[in-house]
Predict the 3D structure of the following.
Amino acid sequence: MFGIFSLPKILFTIAVIAAVWYGFKWLNRRAQVQQQQSDNAGRVEAGAAKAPDVEEMVQCPDCGAYVAKGGGHRCT
Ligand SMILES: [Zn+2]
């Protein structure tokens, strides 16, 4: 049954896969843009208070726990 109908089927399958692939890429790009926009909006709303907390998280060289830098962490 690999006659004259197989080539259009293959082409159709490739077209569907390409459409799904580009659809996913488009959705991902849209989600990234929306996330960047919401991140920027959140940064504006939260001010500079949020970013330093994230940047000051460091891994303790002794116990391996992620702790705030200069936060008075003591290994138990
Ligand atoms: Zn520690």
Remarks:
- The pocket of zinc ion is lined by residues 60, 62-63, 65, 73, 75 (CB under 6 Å).
